[in-house]
Design brief:
This is Phosphatidylglycerol--prolipoprotein diacylglyceryl transferase. This protein has one domain (23-170, 179-297). The chain is mainly alpha-helical and 303 residues long. It has a two-stranded antiparallel sheet. Strands 3-4 form a two-stranded antiparallel ribbon. The longest helix is centred in the middle third of the chain and has 25 residues, at 124-148. Helix 2 (54-77) packs antiparallel against helix 3 (102-120) and helix 4 runs antiparallel to helix 5. The protein has 9 helices and 6 strands; from the N terminus they run ββααααββααββααα. It has helices at 25-47, 54-77, 102-120, 124-148, 185-207, 213-231, 245-267, 282-285, 289-299; strands at residues 15-18, 21-24, 163-164, 181-182, 239-240, 243-244. A hairpin with a 2-residue loop joins strand 1 (15-18) and strand 2.
Length: 303
């Protein structure tokens, strides 16, 4: 075994037992990512004129629908794992076992964000721009859950940084000898996501990207990286149009992001005056002192 190879942590580390409670580390990784993204997005929204923690009003919709979309997308792109004779249909909802697709999360989360933004009075694209780098940070943190679960690793490799996987793992290639190393795709995606964070931050400084442009860059960068990572993963995925379903989904993300960049560039040439929808900013919602005084005067009875 190469001394530079990456050992998988003991599988017992994937679960914590606190008295009667069983806590799955995968779920903790997802939760940590959500908290980190929420804090950072709040800071970015506030710097752009938003009320402190208005982000909470949005993520209360975006996070649950994002998690639902992530799980459903994974289940329906891996039907052989959930739909077979004798299968327990309740396993569809066992999110702690792993299996959450970011593409599905984006679909469900977009619906939830749209609802939350409408209720909070925030422009959807303003929220998306503030979220873009924070989303990549959350995804990087979440990939640690795949590491502790010993899942979603890549094809066998001779590279020195290969990942050690036990031959008893159900995903271990049948017929191959023990002791093989595999591409640590969880690590590849973590690194790619953090590079994406830097790309967005640098481009924002250079071009002052607003009107959805930062989120479009997120889609392009993440989609391109995910296409390559998905192409070397061991886990089964449905084949659509000659491509693994997740590769096709990542390609669609990159194309969507590229189209959005072109569209927003042609449609919006001015700076974003406010992240709020018309009539929904705090200044527009709250009456001015002069208005309050006039109202009080009108209510004062005439002697």
């Amino acid at each position: 075994m190469n001394i530079l190879s990456i050992p998988s942590p003991p599988l017992e580390w994937s679960v914590l037992h606190l008295g009667p409670l069983t806590i799955h580390v995968y779920a903790l990784c997802i939760l940590t990512g959500i908290v980190a993204a929420t804090i950072w997005t709040n800071k970015r929204l506030t710097a752009r004129g938003g009320e402190p923690w208005v982000v909470i009003d949005i993520i209360l919709w975006a996070v649950p629908l994002g998690l639902l979309g992530a799980r459903l997308y994974h289940v329906f792109t891996h039907p052989g794992d959930y739909f077979f004779d004798g299968a327990d249909p309740m396993r569809i909802f066992y999110i702690w076992e792993g299996g959450n697709a970011i593409i599905g999360s984006l679909m469900g989360g977009a619906i939830g964000a749209w609802i939350g933004c409408r209720l909070a009075g925030i422009k959807l694209w303003s929220f998306a721009d503030a979220l873009a780098p924070a989303m990549l940070l959350a995804q990087a943190i979440g990939r640690l859950g795949n590491y502790v679960n010993h899942e979603l690793f890549g094809w066998p490799t001779d590279l020195p940084w290969g990942l050690q996987i036990e031959s008893t793992n159900p995903a271990y290639p049948a017929g191959l000898p023990d002791g093989l190393l595999f591409h640590p795709t969880f690590l590849y995606e973590m690194i790619w996501n953090l590079i994406g964070v830097l790309i967005i931050l640098v481009l924002e400084r250079m071009f002052h990207m607003r009107w959805g442009r930062a989120f479009a860059v997120y889609l392009v960068s993440y989609g391109l990286g995910r296409m390559w990572i998905e192409s070397i993963r061991m886990d089964y995925s449905e084949i659509i149009l000659g491509l693994r379903s997740n590769v096709l989904g990542a390609l669609m993300l990159a194309l969507l992001g590229a189209g959005m960049l072109v569209w927003f560039h042609r449609r919006h040439h001015d700076d974003e005056a406010s992240i709020y929808l018309p009539g929904r900013s705090p200044a527009e919602r709250e009456p001015s002192p002069a208005d309050v005084s006039a109202e009080d005067a009108n209510l004062t009875p005439t002697p």
